[in-house]
Amino acid sequence: MKRLSTLVDVFLVLALFSCSTWTVWSSSCCNQINLNEVRPHSVSITEFGAVGDGITLNTKAFQNAIFYLNSFADKGGAKLFVPAGRWLTGSFDLISHLTLWLDNDAVILGSTNSDDWPVVDPLPSYGRGRELPGGRHRSLIYGCNLTDVVITGNNGTIDGQGSIWWNNFWNKTLNYTRPHLVELMNSTGVLISNVTFLNSPFWTIHPVYCSHVTIQNVTIIAPLSSPNTDGINPDSSDNVCIEDCYISTGDDLISIKSGWDGYGISFGRPSTNINIRRLIGKTTSAGIAIGSEMSGGVSEVHAEDIYIFDSHSAIRIKTSPGRGGYVRNVYISNMILANVDIAIRFTGLYGEHPDDTYDPDALPVIERITIKDVIGVKVKHAGLIQGIKGDNFVNICLSNITLNVSSKLPWNCSYIKGFSDLVSPEACEPLKERIFPEHCSDCYYLPNHLKSLSNQNWGAWLLS
């Protein structure tokens, strides 16, 4: 058997490869979306006067091209081709039955003028901008009420040039909440693949109120010092598949959300059926996070074959009194961690409320969380798992977890209850009840179509 240090070396090498390299030995697990692979109509952005010199503003060219292609929406759809070049633009809208295709050396650049990112209404499930009361800047690439929309290509790049936004955040000179790089809202049948996303002003990819979303083979990069540059944030969305991605950002790599306090409770749209597979990344925050805005509920989350390195935490659930909602039926397996401060972190007192009208008695329900088959080296703390007094987090199930931990107090647990088996260092007292393996069926039923994948245990394969 190889040493664990050798395993770290293996993964550091893997991390240098692109996602497309990793897919050579992986197989797609996402249900295929019924999208038109070939659009019968195609135009180049250059046909609408765009200039790819990195200086000329091409917002009108993108808007005019998409307006023209809208006439083909009921004729099989259309493709907007972005060739090699540096295409500076402000915010523009996508349409249904459209493929935005970026060539290999194509770079869509976000304008550094905030006037080119219009201000729009806050999301109803948030009640205000995430950072400031009132509206928010619209994302660079935006779509609402769409069906069958694709952002793909030959690994072209979308660069938000976010440093001006980050500076305004740090200097407290923002007038409105910063924009995302890509936001699709109230849309169905979304595919984002084979594109590199750089330097988002705020969250990078934000599907909100969406169904049937697939994000595959994408690279997302922002400086580790950049504030709140989350990678992918499924928000009040269902049937989302994220696989074969490399993400390195200044906040959570993937953060599952569903609305903020009373606004999210009232809106009442959960995030459910979220599948994450074959993710590599590092961050100053968490690899996979749920919350803190989870008031509409989060359930049926499946994550497997994950490698997190040089990060603050690997798995995190964030919530607070006033959130309401629930997080349940979460199953995370086959993780490898290297140089991570906290492997498992649950925070029940996260705070951050949109206003003073929240109900402190709206307590979240956190239950049936299973984490199994985890190996970690150079980990400082195994777990910081803190529920809420009078509102225990229950049925937390840990199994087959081996962590090389440097702290003399590897676990810090409060207001939780659950089970553990084959956990090293030994789990904290509230998780020492052992009814394994029967308790896993009580905590969470692993769907049949995932059982065969779980049995493959790719971590064991690498160690053999």
Description:
With 464 residues, the protein is mainly beta. It has one domain: Single-stranded right-handed beta-helix, Pectin lyase-like (Pectate Lyase C-like, 3 Solenoid), CATH 2.160.20.10. The chain is built from 8 helices and 28 strands. The strands form 3 sheets. The chain has a 22-stranded parallel beta sheet that branches. It has a 4-stranded parallel beta sheet with strand order 5-10-13-16. The radius of gyration is 22 Å and the shape is globular.
Give the CATH superfamily.
Single-stranded right-handed beta-helix, Pectin lyase-like
Helix share of residues? 10-25%
* Helix/strand class: mainly beta
As a percent range, the share of strand residues is: 35-45%
The CATH topology: Pectate Lyase C-like
Level-2 CATH architecture:
3 Solenoid
**Backbone CA Rg:** 22 Å
Major sheet characteristics: 22 strands, parallel
Shape: globular
The average pLDDT is: 89
The DSSP helix count reads 8
Q: What's the CATH class label?
A: Mainly Beta
Total individual domains? 1
Question: Which segments are poorly predicted (pLDDT under 50) over 5 or more consecutive residues?
Answer: 1-28, 441-464
Q: How far apart, in Å, are the first and last alpha carbons?
A: 5 Å
DSSP strand count = 28
Provide a concise account of the structure shown.
The chain is mainly β and 464 residues long.
Key words describing this protein structure:
single chain; 464 residues; mainly beta; Pectate Lyase C-like; 22-stranded parallel beta sheet; four-stranded parallel beta sheet; 8 helices; 28 strands; disordered C terminus; hydrolase; PbH1; signal
